[in-house]
Specification:
The protein folds into 2 domains: 136 residues, Glucose Permease (Domain IIA) (Distorted Sandwich), CATH 2.70.70.10; 119 residues, Orthogonal Bundle (Muramoyl-pentapeptide Carboxypeptidase, domain 1), CATH 1.10.101.10. The chain is an alpha+beta fold and 318 residues long. Strand 1 and strand 2 form a beta hairpin. Strands 3, 5, 6, 7, 9, 11 and 12 form a 7-stranded antiparallel sheet that branches. It has 8 helices and 12 strands.
């Protein structure tokens, strides 16, 4: 199968169009007491696409909201993601709520949350209108932790998102940090490499089973599951590398709606649970699952119809 990826690209993310950049949106964090660092650290990018990281919010990048932008002589420490007040904000990875409250990080204004992910890695979520976790609580990747808002020094509703390595003084570019972990910040299909594990792998396994291949649903993206994905990629004329990236996800997901049943419904229920739905994985797309889908669509500013179609799928697994 010919390689349809651009030269030098190691995954399917390239060629996926970025969201439009909106102008006239939010102002991010205030003055920093430290310098900005480069992005991803020493581990290889491929090894980091392990299913452990999630997109923290659906939205758009506003003009001037990017990492390093000049804010009156002070570089912007994060990436702004714009959407309406009340849009759900999710934990980018599992860990604990290190600080929750007003002004929890030096130089930042408004309601914020700092999550600690181990290995001196932190994420920060600013300008929130509501907290959904308390300080000291454990959080899972993709858990609903707060709502987008306008608290602090802002001109409009948005999430100010930061990534920190080597402690809270080690701020790094969130876009490249998340991209190295297979996440398209602001919304988009993720990239999951062989060796990944966790609930997003269970989603892949259920979807492969829906396509007629028997797999144990164990959340381990090992040789058996990778082989099944490669066979699927080959059958669809995709680049055969075992990575579940944007092109593979788009072919793999299956629409689920009221009255549907089977493994694709179990996949949707598992994905909804990543985003705090609390569903029983029974394969029945009945009223409870429809309601959970509608709620997810509403808080992510998607079209609310209760149908788990491609746009909803992308937001769920991203």
């Amino acid at each position: 199968m010919p390689d349809d990826r651009p030269d030098g690209e190691s995954d399917e993310r390239r060629g996926v169009s970025r969201r439009a950049m909106l102008s006239g949106a939010a102002v991010g964090a205030g003055a920093l007491a430290f310098g900005l660092m480069s992005a991803t650290g020493t581990a290889s990018a491929a090894s980091l696409k392990n299913g452990a990281w999630r997109n923290p919010a659906q939205g758009y990048f506003p003009t001037g909201g990017h990492f390093g932008a000049d804010r009156g002589g002070v570089p912007h420490a994060g990436q702004d993601v714009t959407n309406s007040t009340g849009t759900a904000v999710y934990a980018a990875a599992g860990g604990s709520a290190y600080r929750v409250g007003w002004g929890v990080l030096s130089g930042r204004t408004g309601n914020g949350i700092i999550l600690f992910h181990g290995n001196s890695t932190y994420t920060y979520y600013g300008h929130l209108s509501r907290f959904r976790v308390s300080q000291g609580s454990s959080v899972s990747a993709g858990e609903w932790i707060g709502d987008m808002g306008t608290t602090g020094n802002v001109t409009g509703p948005h999430l100010h998102f930061e990534t920190h390595r080597g402690g809270l003084n080690g701020v790094v570019d969130p876009v490249s940090f998340m991209r190295a972990r297979g996440v398209d910040l602001g919304g988009g299909w993720p990239a999951i490499d062989p060796g990944a594990s966790g609930d997003v792998v269970k989603v892949i396994q259920y979807l492969i089973r829906h396509r007629g291949t028997s797999l144990v649903i164990d959340g381990d993206y090992g040789p058996v599951s990778v082989s099944a994905v490669k066979s699927f990629q080959s059958s669809k004329g995709l680049y055969v590398d075992g990575q579940v990236g944007p092109k593979t996800w788009a072919k793999l997901v299956a629409t689920a709606r009221s009255g549907s049943d089977g493994n694709h419904v179990k996949a949707a229920q598992t994905a909804l649970n990543i985003r705090s739905a609390g569903l029983r994985i029974d394969g029945d797309y009945g009223s409870v699952t429809v309601s959970a889908t509608r709620s997810f669509q509403s808080v992510n500013r998607l079209y609310v119809d209760g149908v788990c179609g491609p746009v909803t799928w992308q937001a769920l697994v991203g």
